[in-house]
């Protein structure tokens, strides 16, 4: 249940709502890179607009994977134009190394959450997923040849990169803003994200981020994983893909966020997203 063997892994995996549980994990891995942290610190505001930041990332990921060719071209042009403005002492958003790291965290967080819930896919499927995920980097402007070409190459890159991460003051300030938002309705959600992020991060980075952890929190994290693994795959797939469907609809309608893609071509409610999610939902 939840798997369609004839569908490309990237499309089958990326739209699962359970992948959103790794959002905080991906963000913290990104900002553990000092250059990314400085750019985010200088050009973002997680404390007042965390939902907008998340929505922008989801627009990019879902639009890249499930959008039409026209939507992808327009979306990627806008994302690259925005990133061209993100420059400062010691960082440049369009630097290949930073683009690769950001795309790698998106791939790793999604594939890791999927494996935790559904079980580890076979090696052939994992290799195909990795190849398909290169689009997350090339969409940002990463040359295709920079993306790892095999699981072994990705694992070596990942281990080397994680070992070189160091959490600085900027990253800790961003984390404090992210997990303690000014918006009251977001606070319960971010408490859950804090728990999931703490359980997913390597202990060394969790400690550097000053994320509280204990045996009790580890047991709570383990319970969440067990319950999710038992319940989530039994939920009908269209329901599990509902966040993706809604996000694509709002992206096309220009609701809840910037009008990235101009006037909508769909006129009804969330079902209007079916044009590109029909195979995924």
Automatic annotation (TrEMBL):
Residues 13-230 form the ER-bound oxygenase mpaB/mpaB'/Rubber oxygenase catalytic domain. Residues 260-281 are annotated as: Disordered. InterPro entries: MPAB/Lcp_cat_dom. It comes from the Bacteria. Transmembrane segments: none annotated. One of its GO terms (molecular function) is oxidoreductase activity. This is ER-bound oxygenase mpaB/mpaB'/Rubber oxygenase catalytic domain-containing protein. It comes from Nocardiopsis sinuspersici.
